[in-house]
Amino acid sequence: MTMQVTVVDYGMGNLYSVQRALESVGAEVTVSGDAAVVAGASRLILPGVGAFADGMAGLRERGLVEPIRRHAQSGRPLMGICLGMQMLAGVSEEFGEHAGLDLIAGRVVAVPAVTTEGSAQKIPNIGWRNLAPAENADWSRTALATTRAGESVYLVHSFHFVPTDARHVLAHCEYGGHRVTAAVGGGRMIGCQFHPEKSGAVGLQILSRFVQD
Amino acid sequence: MGRQVRLIARLDIKGPNLIKGVHLEGLRVIGDPQAFAKRYYEQGADELLYIDVVASLYGRSKLTEIVRRAAHDVFVPMTVGGGIRTVQDVTDLLRAGADKVAINTAAVHRPELIREVARRFGSQCMVLSIEAKRRESGRWEVYTDCGRERSGLDAVEWARRGIELGAGEVLITSIDQEGTRKGFDVELTRAISEAVNVPVIASGGYGEPAHLSAVVKEGRADAVAFADVLHYNRASLADLRAAANAAEITVRQV
Question: Where is the signal peptide (chain B) (predicted)?
Fold first, then answer.
């Protein structure tokens, strides 16, 4: 069986690394910004790097908002990566308030610039961080099924997604004593703040699980 | 405790080749960059750093092609520098698979480029690359064109200015220490780290584990770049990771 996956191209960031990482785990990859192609996809990846408002504008201009929403609501697998994960949210506070895809209720808020001990910390949060399961989170039926707690993934971000219902948080990582959301999920939807395509073997394993779902 | 220090494999490029010099001079061809990049990825490098050492002098290089080939097999972040002059150059490298760009010469000549790149792609994408030579005690001068041209700029002041303009990270290469295996310029790294509130990558001079410990603990580096120790196989990234663990430096567990 071929594992088909469509990577949504809406003009934000480098898609080649995502494409290559998926191919390296055996997926057959289509990269497209065409609404009809996205609407017909069996499995979607929404990648992206950049500002939230620009990302949503990119989706709207291409008529991709409804196809992506319908895809997720019909229970087909969807993975959002980095900005693509944040766009699953209802609202973002990045450079003003902006509506997202609203597939998982919640807000995208700034990563605290002060540690829990009160000292200033570097923003963006860049680098490898350990994944910790959220309380009561069940990774077994998600793309994180074969990931072990404490494994490291690569993140680059200044904002993070805080779902209204904490049960949507799958994983977090620690930054300056704060819990920063690293992964969210609901049904067959998963959002990764980290970049699985840049997280070495751990990331490839997550992509591999996703395309086998 | 807390921050994880990144261990970065640095690949200096000239034309199609991986090269290595001393004090950024006397360049020797090491081999095909792709073979080395794959090896470092498989050994568990946290990041790869490509610097085209002659691109500033002779214009565009084969760098984009090298990065695209690397992105085929390497699934950790890649930072790429050398000869970047415009937002379009950055666009091309990011499309080829780079995650960040490192800019030195063009930023010194036209600091506004830092702002343009940060605005378009975000600060996290814009690494200010500084190549510096020690002057009197506690002062370092910025050089451009891979250590060939003096700029008259003070390295610490330039780092501060670059951050104000939007750089999200600083790569500091000590020309004095580069390729000598005598240790990093810890004082320089510390001066930069204390001047800016963004991550600092120390480059140039690794010879033995004590040097790694010094540049992280005293120099306060957030990331450390290694070149000839890896190219000549005097140590692997796994060895360097073990050395970091032994020195109680927090690193990614691979």
Answer: none
**Does the domain at residues A3-212 carry the CATH identifier 3.40.50.880?**
yes
How many CB pairs below 8 A link A and B? 85
Q: Count of domains in chain B?
A: 1
Interchain contact, A127 vs B169, CB within 8 Å: no
Bridge partner residues of A4 (DSSP): A28
Per-residue pLDDT of chain B (254 residues; tens, 9 = 90+): 357 899 999 999 998 999 998 887 878 999 999 999 999 999 999 999 999 988 766 656 689 999 999 999 999 999 999 999 999 999 999 989 999 999 999 999 999 999 999 988 888 899 999 999 999 877 999 999 888 899 999 999 999 999 999 999 999 999 999 999 999 999 999 999 999 989 999 999 999 999 999 999 999 999 999 999 999 999 999 999 999 999 999 999 88
The answer, for A14 touching chain B at a CB cutoff of 8 Å, is: yes
Is-catalytic flag, B157? no
What is the distance between the alpha carbons of residues B132 and B155, in angstroms, rounded to a whole number?
A: 6
For the domain that residue B19 is a member of, what is the CATH number? 3.20.20.70
Measure in Å the smallest separation between the Cα of B136 and chain A Cα atoms.
Answer: 30
Complex confidence, ipTM: 0.91
Residue B8, min C-alpha distance to chain A (Å): 12
CB distance A51–B169 less than 8 Å? no
